[in-house]
Predict the structure.
Amino acid sequence: MNELEMKLEQTDDPCLDEMTLLLYAERQLDREAAQRVSLHTQTCTRCLTLLRALDRESRLLTRSMLEQDEPLPARLAEFHAQVKRNMQWIWGVIFGLAVLGVYELYANYITPVQTQLNDAGFTGSSLLSLVVFQGAFWKGWASMFGLFQFLAVTVMVGFGLFAFRRYLRRGSAMAAVVLSGLSVLLASASPATATEFRKSDTVTIKKGEVITGDMFLAGNHVRIEGEVDGDVFVFAEQLEVSGRISGDLIGFAQTERISGVVDGNVRTAANNVTITGSVERNVTAWNESLNLDSGGKIGRSLTVGGESVVLDGKIGRDLLGFFKNGTISGVIGGSVRARGEMLSISSGAEIDGKTKFDGHKEPSVSADAKLGSPVEFTKVEHKHEARTGDYYLWRLIFTGTFLAFGLVLAGLMPKFAAESVESAGQVGISFGLGVLVLFGVFIGSLIACATIIFFFVGISSLMLWLIMLMAAEVVVGGVVGQWILGRSDEFWKFFLRVALGVVIIRVITTIPFIGFWVALAVCFWGMGAISLTLYRRLQPAFAPNIPPAPMPPVGMSTPLPPSTTVGGI
Amino acid sequence: MSAPGKTEPIELIAQARTGDTQAWGDLYRQYAPAIFRFCRRAMPTREDAEDATMEIFMKLRDKLVQYDASRSFTAWLYKIAANHCWDMLRRKKARHDKDMDDITEVPLECPEPNQLEKLIEERTGEEVRRALDKLGLRARMALVMRYYSDMSYDEIADALGVRRQFVGVVLLRARHELRQALGESSALAVGGAR
């Protein structure tokens, strides 16, 4: 006798519970228990009514689900018709345009900055180029990469991603493994020929000792008194280089002192850095204080970020600095580009190129300092000063505008708005598509505008793009609101969610620095969601010449659930 | 689950199993609408349902040789469909249902029979479908498996990965959720103390 049967037997309650009646209605009770329920329902009106209600509920469910409310979509009309051939070229064009957009950005904005950084010392083995462009995959290919080759390869990669999008969207492990593998192949740096690891409390490369190959050194005190013919990577509390390193020195330390010679570059993040020796190439340092001693020398450029920077020694080329207090009393062979609170150029200083300083206070320049040109000073205003009064008022006005726009959008196109918010729930695909559309449609529209034939198409696309851009925040607001308050199809409840989401986004985008990136992400995400909705709507909804299903699902010949005609009904 | 009946195109299935593309096409056209509707009821979005339908038939084509002709083809097909849809939902990590512990511990209030009858009388198929959309994924999946494709408790338990004893509870909870969703629009209170 199972638990249910015992319950049936022992209960003092004259009425049966709903679970028992449901199991009975669905013929899930054994014969004995079913007989007892049957007997009971013949004498108990309440249970009989409930049993009937459950039965009718089952019928209602079956009938509702079997109703043919939606025709078979056209893409499912034939088994082999699953590929969306009619729309594929649009994706190709969009991706191609997006690539052009990225290239334009790269050529017009990133390259000049890169050149500047290059001048300032980010050359050769800078981390970015080391990781991205010096991978094993790129060896020997670099010379083949003209613009068109680059575009062709990128478009091919794009099409490859497009082809795998279904798997990517579903988070297929295989696709992830393949793509990760490719990424690793592309990005992996060339393997070092001979690498030595040393880890101890005190690591010392003694004077006279010569190490050939790269080195990884870790310890509280690391001293390099000998010679290393390769790159050196150091993690230490105190680092002293009094010997010679023929490659680069990449160091993370509390205190770092270079009194020897580094033939390559120095990249470092440390509290205090003192250079009394010689660095033949560039120095990049992020630290609290950097001191280039009068005897110290940097062959090329110095890029420095820190609180205090004192430069008494010689820098062969440019200085790019971000600091609170900077003092220059040595020789700089190139130009100076600095930003900070205060800059002092003292009497012994010699700067051959231009000097530009963006700071809070005007730099103090000694009359005896030898400058290639007068110091160009730009006073930096505090950001928070710009964020008082008018700024917040305008933020408020814009928030209201977005809310009104959301209200109009939800009012005029409630279904489209709801679908867009639903699409935004698919974060990955929305975001990816948004990146393409934000660049691709914009550039495509501009190109179209430049032609006579497609001028109006271009203008229309541009307007649509602009509306999508405006609506992006509303859509993302909707999805954020739904995350918090749950989903609702009712107009005002839906709008309430949109409003809540928009306000949250507006607040977050007010945060300095983070706000910009959040706003950008919202643009991508929202535009992608709208594009996805548009794309889905462009799909033909009807499958012509598809006959209705000749065979109903199982049980349709008897539309009720199979075991609902039970005792007394 | 129904036994293979006269309505099942046995000949067509047999031909499709031998690799006859024409037969496969016919088989697809016969069953695709019903499977799409199944997926549409089970999956959260239309796009997901379309994808699921296509993938189910891809799976079916690969598995067709394994089909045991002594069993109901339709039942077998629905089992594949149910497993696939549930897998998709699980992979998407979109299951919002409560744990089985909750199912066993949280008591359900027995509805007032007359009120329940009234609620059922007043509701149309469209309203029920809309209400289904509001259910938790497992609840909806269970209802679809039971009342659309008429799967047995054992098959539902197998597809959902729960013990057979819980299937009734899952279904009952799903019905309660549905009644609540149906009752929301009219503020009709269905629940009541026994």
Observations:
- Chain A has a mean pLDDT of 75.
- Residues 103 and 151 of chain A are 9 Å apart (CA to CA).
